[in-house]
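Example S7 (structure tokens).
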């Protein structure tokens, strides 16, 4: 383990045993996704989803969340919408504290680095994501918070 790992709350191995959402459809979705290597769950309501694992900013515990995704070249894109809430989702606050993440897309699992798209990048990428999930435009209208597009790049 490097000094950087110690400063960031541990190594990447704890990503192998994450906590899923406490209940409801997200937990069931993540469990089914993992159990079937994405054969069940990769497509949800006709759109592609991935599993994003972040490290809890206070607990240091790995936490896994299913999210709709798009692509930009080799990068994956997710939107920190929280359904248009004025508060960003916990996973976004977690990656803001530690950008190292684990991603699962179908059976492919890999470590990545997450970052919010710049304003210029977001102008180009937002339409990519709203083409996949048009409700993102409605979510943005519900809040004064600028909803980020997050870019996930393989490590």
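Recovered sequence:
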């Amino acid at each position: 383990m490097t000094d950087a790992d110690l400063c960031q709350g541990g190594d990447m191995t704890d990503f192998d045993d994450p906590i899923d959402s406490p209940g409801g459809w997200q937990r069931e979705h993540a469990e089914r996704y993992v159990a079937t290597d994405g054969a069940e769950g990769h497509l949800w309501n006709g759109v592609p989803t991935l599993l994003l694992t972040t490290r809890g900013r206070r607990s240091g515990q790995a936490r896994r969340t299913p999210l709709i995704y798009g692509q930009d070249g080799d990068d994956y894109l997710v939107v920190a919408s929280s359904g248009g809430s004025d508060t960003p989702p916990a996973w976004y606050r977690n990656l803001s504290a530690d950008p190292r993440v684990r991603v699962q897309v179908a059976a492919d699992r890999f470590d990545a680095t997450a970052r919010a798209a710049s304003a210029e990048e977001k102008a180009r990428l937002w339409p990519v994501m709203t083409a996949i999930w048009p409700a993102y435009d409605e979510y943005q209208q519900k809040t004064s918070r600028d909803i980020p597009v997050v870019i996930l790049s393989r490590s």
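Notes on this example. The longest helix spans residues 119-132.
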